[in-house]
Amino acid sequence: MVPEDFALARKHGGTVRVEVSGGGQALLYQTGIVSTAAFQQALIDAVRRSGVFASVRNDAADYLLRVRIVAVVPPAAGLREVASMSSRWTLTSARDGAVVFDDVILSRYAASAGSVLVYGDRVMLEGVARQNVKSGIEALSAAKLPVTGS
């Protein structure tokens, strides 16, 4: 679920802590469900891989990134091989609690019919979640954030 590459507008010098909510409790993927835990781990790995922030922390950080999975729509059975996902990304400054980025990220993913036949909805859900992570990180990179103490 972690994208391979990113088109970043800029890299931010601060540190970030990541929290995800709104997904399902599935181990990975079930019909129409993206696991909260799997999405959070993919997001943390993607933030590290992209370098959009200096580091990801589990404790005190310059920013708190909260991502809420709003909706995941698997492909309609047999009609088309497209899944969609929306999530709300909110970045707050730890210094004063100010919201410095707030956006709804919409993503769509189309897989080949062959991969859907072999792997089912899993390939679609993983693909749309990966696209959502990529689009969110790229949107974050375009944000003009206040200078941090790090």
Please count the helical segments: 3
Q: Quote the beta fraction.
A: 25-35%
What is the level-2 CATH architecture name?
Answer: 3-Layer(aba) Sandwich
Helix content: 25-40%
Quaternary state reads: single chain
Runs in which pLDDT lies below 50 for 5 or more consecutive residues are: 26-31
| Span between termini | 29 Å
Radius of gyration: 16 Å
Query: What about the largest sheet?
Result: 5 strands, mixed
In CATH, what is the class?
A: Alpha Beta
N to C succession of SSEs: EEEHEEEEHH
Number of strand elements: 7
Q: Can you walk me through this structure?
A:
It is a single chain. This protein is of the alpha/beta class. It has one domain (15-142): 3-Layer(aba) Sandwich (Rossmann fold), CATH 3.40.50.10610. It is 29% helix and 32% strand. It has a five-stranded mixed sheet with strand order 4-1-5-6-7. A two-stranded antiparallel ribbon has the order 2-3. α1 crosses α3 (121-142).
